[in-house]
Amino acid sequence: MIEYSFQPTDEHINGAGHVDNVEIYRCFNEQRLALFETIGLPLGAICFPALAKTEVEFVRELFDHGPVTIRSAVSRVGSKSFTVQQTIWQDQQLCNRCETVAVYFHRHDKVTKVIDGRVRALMEKSLALFQGRTQPSST
User: Fold this and answer.
1) Between 21-38 and 117-130, two packed helices, what is the crossing angle to 10 degrees?
2) Sequence-ordered alpha helix ranges (H) in 9-52
3) Is residue 100 packed enough to be buried (19+ CB in 10 Å), middle (13-18) or exposed (0-12)?
4) Which of 14, 28, 51, 78 is most buried by its number of CB atoms within 10 A?
């Protein structure tokens, strides 16, 4: 599991005065790629996650008045696919939720593969950290 915090700036804000939804997708994608790195799947790896499905739920607006925290973790591990659960928090309130299903994909052979043992172990470590944790750590 990884956690990242940042302070929204004017470049994140849209004409309605809140963080633009496009920025939310960008944040989820950047942190998902960072999570892939921590579970042994760097960009350019022969086997890399191919996204099969992504669902984003907009619970409440984000503003520029305080820090935003993004949490990302593996929430399910299958034989050839896994699920990443992500949340965005501001003022200790859930603002956005994202669930992504990814398949372990061999770039050259263009087929899904069984998740190898080393990567599976790192995914399961992320899964264990994710279970039971619903809010960002208070600092």
Assistant:
1) 130
2) 21-38
3) buried
4) 28
| Residue 46 backbone dihedrals phi, psi, to 5 degrees | -60, -45
DSSP state of 45: -
Could you tell me the CA-to-CA distances from 91 to 1, 14, 99, 100, 112 in Å, in that order? 21, 20, 22, 25, 40
Q: Look-up: residue for tokens 């790195």?
A: 37
Q: What is d(CA 96, CA 26) in angstroms, rounded to the nearest whole number?
A: 13
Q: pLDDT by residue for the chain (139 residues), tens digit each? A: 899 998 888 888 888 888 888 999 999 999 999 999 999 898 889 999 999 999 999 999 998 888 999 999 999 999 999 999 999 999 999 999 999 999 999 999 999 999 999 999 989 988 887 775 544 455 4
Q: Which of 139, 29, 57 lies closest to 92, judged by CA?
A: 139
Instruction: Enter the DSSP assignment of 23.
Output: H
Q: What is the pLDDT of residue 12?
A: 83
| 102: nearest Cα among 130, 118, 134, 80 | 80
| Domain range summary for the chain, segments of one domain joined by + | 2-130
